[in-house]
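Suppose you are handed a protein chain with no further information: no name, no annotation, nothing but its sequence. What can you learn? This example shows the usual starting point.
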Amino acid sequence: MQLSDWLASNIKLLDTAGDPTSRLDLLVLLEDATGKDRGWLLANPQLELKDAVAQCGLTNLAGLNRMVRRRAKHEPLAYIRSKSEFYRREFYIDRRVLEPRPESETMIDLLKKYNSVDKNFQRKMTVVDVGCGSGALGITAVKEIADCHVIAIDIDPGCLEVTNINSAKHGVSLEVLKGNLLSAIHDQGTRPTETVYILLCNLPYVPDDFQINDAALLEPRTAIFGGPDGIDIYRELFDQAKDFSPTPRLIMTESLPPQHEALTSVARAAGFKLLETDDFIQVFSSSEPFPARP
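A reasonable first move is to predict its three-dimensional structure. Written in C-alpha cells, the prediction is:
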C-alpha cells in the first residue's frame, strides 16, 4: 500500500472515531515506524509503506495498523508509542503515569529565571518534584541547572518505577522517595538547614465532576482529579509546607486558571505570597523578601 492511500484511509478512520488531530497523529506514528521525518514522508506520497516500515525494523505494517486502531479507541499517543517529549527530551511513558503536558514546561522556565535572580540558590538548591509521575520535571531540572539536587516524591510506587526508568535513561541521579507529599521528606529525618528548597508541584487539580476528554479517561484518575473544586491536594500540600523546615523558598503549582484565586488564598493562609502567574503555573514565595531582578 502506498503511503498516500494508507494516510487517507486512516485519517477517515480516526476522524470517524472523533480524533481531532488525526492527520498529525498518523504522521507521528509513521515517523516512528519508518524512521523518516514528516516532511520527507509528505514529499514521498508514492512510498510503498510495507517496504519502508520493514527497512526501519522497529515494527511492521500490521503492528502500525494496530497502533492506529488503538488511537481510534482514544488511547493517548504516549501510551501507544511508550514515549513522549518534554522540554526537548524524550521520556518513557506507560499507563502508570500521566503524559507530561507542554504547559508544565513553564515551571522549568520559571525555575531557571529565579535561579538566575537569587544567587543564594546556587550550589545549595534542592528541587522537590512533588507528585513526580514520570519524573519529567525533576529530571529536566537536573539537566538544566548545574549542581541541582532533586528529590522526586510520589505516593504511587508505579510512578516511582517510571521515574527510575527515566532517570537511568537520561543518566541522572535523583533521590526518589515514596510518600504523601512533603511527609516523605519529613520521614527521612533531619535535613541540612542551609538547603534552599524549591517545590515543583504538578498535583491532581481537575474538579471531580469536570468532564475530561476520552483520551484522559484512559490515564490514571488519581493523577487527575483533586476533589470537588480540584485543589484539595494543594490544600494538604500547603498545610504541610507551613510547618516544613526549612521553609520552602519557592512553591510552583499547576492548576486551571479559574482555580488560581482560590489557590492563592490557600497559599496566603499558609504564609506564602504570590509572586507571579504564567498561564497554568503560579509561583509562591515564603514570607522573606525575594531579590528583585537586576
